[in-house]
Amino acid sequence: MRGPDAFPTVAGVAAAARMLTLRHPDLCRMRLAGESRSGQPLWLLSVGAPRGCDRHVLVVAGANCDEPAGCGAALWLAEQAVHDRRRLKAAGLTWDFLLCLDPDGALLNERGPAGRRPPAVHFRHTYRPAGTEHPHAADSLLAPVGGLPETLALSALVAELRPVLSCSLHGTDVGGAWVRLSAEVPGLAEPFGKSAAELDIPVQAGTYEALASRGAGPGLFVTPAAGQRYGGTEVRVEVPMWATRRVAYAEPHPDPEYALAVLAARLRNEGATGEEAFGQALELLGDAADGPLLRAARHAVGAWAAIAADFDAVGRDASLPLTMAHVAACDIAARRAPLRAAGMLLRLLDEARLDEDPDSGPARLRARLERRLDAGAADLIAAMDAVWVPIPEQMELQARTVLAAAARIG
């Protein structure tokens, strides 16, 4: 895959999809699958013959709004399906691409640089919504959760298409590549590992999000989806922005309980400082700041205590064989949480346009948050020895993994 080292925009992906339908009206159709909370369109691009293809593969991009590579990967997959029209017809498949599930959140993330950026700048512009404002369940794309319009649109789409394979395209700030499956896909480990190796992206041997999942090969974790209604296999592809080989070490950790206790203590210390900063920001911002950024910042700060308690519990659980990769993944999560909160608080202060006098309360708070963000982001990258993954390669690994999974679904 070739292209600029920049993430696509929501509008740019929709425009490119529209052009694809104009160039190939015999195969491509585009329709509105619903609307977001703010009225943004949820576009569905379908590639396949209008009749005679009753098997569907659903690909969802932008399920998490701060993971933009998937939108470009979905577009690349659509173009690939058009290019391989004979194979598409022989397989009897229609590919359906929900181009962005959370356009509201994606637009908030587009305010930062589109391409490669210093880590501190990345976290300075990241928006990660509060848990109740995510349009899909944490462990399954297909399990219905809540009553958000994006969630209802996705549920209606799944009920209509009943896909044999559902793929959601995800990313992470720092880590390795891995795949979560609702059921084992025989033969997927080999092409996934080969693609990751060719792109020099480490395969993650253990994750914080799938600690108790069953391994199905290097980087593959099986977690049966709760509440899934229509069968089919679900594949969630995770690809990092900054890659670290520390998450690729599958050797047992010599003392995971102590290591996780240290991480929990660090989080509690960061949490106390973060709560103080959040309280100061609330006093300065007043009621005018109420909105998704404030709710997200409040959620981020409030989650630290729960994560720390979870680390303590996981470390004491002898039934979990924790590896070096697991502890590295937890270390990343512990370092990342304060950075997201600091970045969103800084955005709130920026948007409020408060007193810029260097001796004023807002300026002093902003300076403290900037220092913490700069130092914390630098420490995260240095501690993990992480390197930037070019954006076209992030997209390529997502796309190649989806194609490999589709080729192995009966």
Automatic annotation (TrEMBL):
This is Putative hydroxyacyl-CoA dehydrogenase. InterPro entries: Peptidase_M14 (IPR000834). Residues 17-110 form the Peptidase M14 domain. It comes from Actinacidiphila reveromycinica. GO terms for molecular function: metallocarboxypeptidase activity; zinc ion binding. It holds the Pfam family Peptidase_M14. One of its GO terms (biological process) is proteolysis. It comes from the Bacteria.
